[in-house]
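[Meeting: bench + compute handoff]

Bench side (C.D.) handed over the final construct sequence. Compute side (W.E.) agreed to return the predicted structure before the next meeting so the bench team could plan truncations. Sequence as handed over:
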Amino acid sequence: MTDPWRARFRLLFSDAAKFGAVGVVCFAIDVIVFNLLRTGAGWGPIESKLVSAVVSTIVAWIANRLWTFRRGRRERFGTEFVEFMIIAGIGAGIGAACLWVSHYLLGFQSLLADNISGNVIGLALATTFRFFLYRHWVFDTGRRERATERRDAAALEES
């Protein structure tokens, strides 16, 4: 592995680890809110999942902006937020689609089945989707990585 590739891998691993840590906290928020709405408020599974996803997404945006992808955050706060929410919305749709298929199409209607389909399968698919789009589109860390690689290459050529 060449030095630029090793550096890229380290940045990718660092971003993924931070994203994962934020994800664990947001997962807990998502599951707690989902189950409170589902059992305490008597809401349906889809409505509960969408609300829990919005709450956890707002926390995720703040944490990812200030910590995970801070080197790629933009000065245009509003544009970044809108793009983040669009991707998060698609991610929530992925989770809700998994829940819908399980609950309504396949007929698995227990609370456990709803949690597995929405909070395990749907979350895994949505998280993978969100990580790569947040990293390469919203926060565009690749742009900063490429600039660093060009600067390092130029420094090597000069020496």
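W.E. noted at the follow-up: The chain has a mean pLDDT of 85. C.D. will use this when planning the next construct.
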